[in-house]
UniProtKB/TrEMBL annotation:
Residues 7-67 form the Nudix hydrolase domain. Keywords: Hydrolase. Its cofactor is Mg(2+). It holds the Pfam family NUDIX. PANTHER family: GDP-MANNOSE MANNOSYL HYDROLASE, MUTT_NUDIX FAMILY PROTEIN. The keyword Metal-binding does not apply. This is NUDIX domain-containing protein. The keyword ATP-binding does not apply. InterPro entries: NUDIX_hydrolase-like_dom_sf, NUDIX_hydrolase_CS, NUDIX_hydrolase_dom.
């Protein structure tokens, strides 16, 4: 089992999302993030996922929620 993490970025009253497309279901929008790798803490995982998916480095300011 591994944990997943997503990031919320709001800038200029806009929410950053990633658009994914599935041939069966069409377009879907999701928050940037992904799975935590073995040995990573949640902040390291989120920073890595943002770099991979969005191509930018981020500063994690606070956690909003865990589920």
């Amino acid at each position: 089992m591994r944990c997943g993490i997503k990031g919320i970025v709001i800038s200029n009253n806009k929410l950053l999302t990633i658009k994914k497309y599935d041939e069966q279901f069409g377009a879907d929008f999701t928050l940037p993030g992904g799975g935590q790798e073995h040995g990573e803490n949640l902040i390291e995982a989120l920073k890595r996922e943002f770099l991979e998916e969005v191509g930018c480095q981020i500063e994690v300011k606070q956690f909003r929620f865990l589920s």
